[in-house]
Design goal:
CATH topology of the largest domain in chain B: MetI-like fold
Distance between the termini of chain B: 40 Å
Order of helices and strands of chain B: HHHHHHHHHHHHH
Structural class of chain A: mainly alpha
Strand content of chain B: under 5%
Number of strands of chain A: 2
Largest sheet of chain B: none
Radius of gyration of chain B: 23 Å
Structural class of chain B: mainly alpha
Oligomer: heterodimer
Helix content of chain B: over 70%
Radius of gyration of chain A: 25 Å
Strand content of chain A: under 5%
Number of helices of chain A: 14
CATH class of the largest domain in chain B: Mainly Alpha
CATH superfamily of the largest domain in chain B: MetI-like
CATH topology of the largest domain in chain A: MetI-like fold
CATH architecture of the largest domain in chain A: Orthogonal Bundle
Number of domains of chain A: 2
Largest interface: A-B, 96 and 87 residues
Order of helices and strands of chain A: HHEEHHHHHHHHHHHH
Number of helices of chain B: 13
Number of domains of chain B: 2
Distance between the termini of chain A: 52 Å
Number of strands of chain B: 0
Shape of chain A: globular
């Protein structure tokens, strides 16, 4: 009874009107967060194309997923993307941020130009890179030709297509991470470097033992954000390659989309989304652990 | 010597990130045969490709649709987000901790899991091929609420107390007293929301099939993948330029706000 009394008492001490402030969000939450979450748990046990009635099939969607070559292919493609995208992103962003942080003239202008691809729509960037990577008239192969080198089948060779997309995505997003690194660098207290100087630490050692550990939180943020972004990869392969050649750029998101909208397999698409969500959460938790223990050792 | 090298790298970076856009703009103005050239200038600039794009797809209408959808979403995210943020930061009510936890939890849900159920919800409500489908699911943002809450927590209590003694309602306090003090966070939330909506393609592709309701990136995507561009590079580049230009112009004027908003979002997210 005391518990109930306490609750009633707290309810009485509540500010008048507070509930009106949160009511719109509560309605929104129920409709667009809670309901879809619950519904996804129902969908994964059904076969459904939206038009005909839902059909309960137990765990068959999961059975199918375990034996689905394309699911593994899309997962592998996403991991390939991340394996190239994340290290490249961190190294390029950190290098440019360190240069910008070393007291250069025109810092604001450089920063603004590096950030430009971030604000432009991904579709426009993808159309642009389609021309950059084009085998016959692409900018890159034109440059190679001028240097007397043979053309490279950037998007045509299944081994190169995903790495090419990873490079393009890095070009598009690196500006965000330069800015994040700049904020991180400015938050490092000056006296840490002064102390390191007094101890006679070389610039490299200062970087290794002062700068890098102090940037640890920034690196965690960057790795996590790039990972979530990588798993959401959709429009780039959709426009550039349609998932080809030979499924080599079929991303997880593109595969879910195809299952739902090319084949009308809503239950299976929801199952894929469900499993991908678990994979993402697992990967992100793992990354945090690894980076944090790596940096503290 | 060292500083020369430093500037060489920085300038190379600047060229790497901005030259392709210049090439895109130039390519959209050049005749088909000259586009492949690395040289940006040409004696044969014309608006031919743009005329063709305008003829083939209702891109002006799509531009208007994008404005309507992004503006409505942004207004809603700022309005309702600041209300919830204020309640969480400054009002006492039963369940405030639960609500806060729930909102943090919402932010950790990967969107892949709710995407298909959300689409089905739109179908069931009969909202596909309406503005509602494009606006309603993004009308509020957990992230926006968290940003507002953080900012409002730092506002002095004395200010709020004084207003209460003067007989202001909580709603008046929020919009007359707190809002004018909250320009930075309002700009951040508004800009991030607007940008995210303006550039969104996946969701419109799912819920809109009717050409007159398509958003700008969506219609350009369909123009590119659907064969309407007839593999004419000039048409594609003109469409891409039309799509990028509004954002680049806004960025040229409010560059600082764009960068600061992104920076604060990344660190707190």
């Amino acid at each position: 009874m005391t518990g109930l009394n306490q609750i009633l008492q707290r309810a009485r001490r509540s500010d008048r009107g507070a509930y009106w402030f949160i009511l719109p969000y509560v309605i929104f939450f129920c409709a667009f967060v809670a309901y879809p979450l619950v519904f996804s748990l129902i969908l994964v046990f059904h076969r459904w194309n939206i038009v005909t009635p839902m059909e309960w099939i137990g765990l068959k969607n999961f059975d199918r997923l375990i034996g689905d070559v394309l699911f593994y292919r899309s997962l592998l493609n996403t991991l390939t993307f991340l394996a190239i995208h994340i290290p490249l992103q961190v190294v390029v962003a950190l290098a440019l941020a360190l240069l910008l942080n070393a007291g250069v003239r025109g810092r604001g202008l450089f920063r603004a130009l590096y950030f430009l691809p971030v604000v432009v729509s991904g579709v426009a960037v993808t159309i642009l890179w389609q021309q950059i990577y084009s085998y016959d008239y692409g900018i890159l192969n034109n440059i190679l030709h001028a240097a007397g080198l043979p053309p490279v089948p950037w998007l045509v060779d299944p081994r190169l297509a995903m790495p090419s997309i990873a490079i393009m995505a890095t070009w598009k997003n690196v500006g965000i991470y330069i800015v994040l690194f700049l904020v991180g660098l400015q938050n490092i207290p000056r006296d840490l470097y002064e102390a390191a100087n007094l101890d006679g630490a070389s610039p490299f050692k200062q970087f290794r033992y002062v700068t890098l550990p102090m940037l640890n939180p920034t690196i965690v943020v960057i790795v996590v954000l790039s990972t979530i972004g990588g798993f959401s990869l959709f429009i780039e392969p959709y426009v550039l390659t349609g998932g080809g050649p030979m499924q080599s750029t079929l991303s997880g998101m593109l595969y879910i989309y195809n299952q739902a909208f090319s084949f009308g397999h809503m239950g299976y698409a929801a199952t894929l989304g469900f499993v991908y969500a678990l994979v993402i959460l697992g990967v992100v938790v793992l990354q945090r652990r690894v980076i944090e223990s790596e940096m503290s050792s | 010597m060292k500083s020369v090298l430093k500037y060489a790298v920085l300038v190379a970076g600047a060229v790497l990130f901005s030259y392709p856009f210049l090439w895109m703009l130039a390519g959209s103005l050049k005749p088909e045969l000259e586009i492949a050239s690395l040289n940006i200038l040409s004696g044969n600039f014309s608006l031919q490709s743009y005329a063709q794009v305008l003829l083939k797809i209702p891109i002006a209408r799509a531009f208007l649709n994008s404005i309507i959808v992004s503006a409505a979403t942004t207004a809603s995210v700022v309005f309702f987000g600041s209300m919830v943020g204020y309640a969480l930061a400054r009002l006492r009510f039963l369940g405030s901790k639960t609500l806060y936890t729930l909102i943090l939890f919402t932010m950790t849900i990967p969107f892949q899991i709710v995407l298909i159920p959300q689409y089905i919800l739109m179908v069931k409500l009969g909202w596909t091929d309406t503005y509602l489908a494009l606006i309603a699911p993004t009308m509020m943002s957990a992230f926006g609420i968290i940003l507002f809450r953080q900012f409002f927590m730092a506002i002095p209590q004395a200010l709020i107390d004084a207003a209460r003694i003067d007989g202001c309602s909580e709603l008046m306090i929020l919009f007359r007293i707190i809002w004018p003090l909250s320009r930075p966070v309002i700009i951040t939330v508004a800009l991030l929301t607007f940008m995210a909506n303006w550039n969104e393609v996946l969701w419109p592709l799912m819920v809109v099939r009717e050409q007159s309701l398509m958003t700008m990136p969506q219609i350009v995507t369909i123009f590119t993948t659907g064969g309407q561009a007839e593999t004419q590079l000039g048409y594609l580049l003109a469409a891409a330029t039309l799509l990028s230009l509004p954002v680049i112009i806004a960025y040229a004027f409010f560059q600082r706000y764009f960068i600061e908003s992104m920076a604060s979002s990344g660190l707190k997210g």
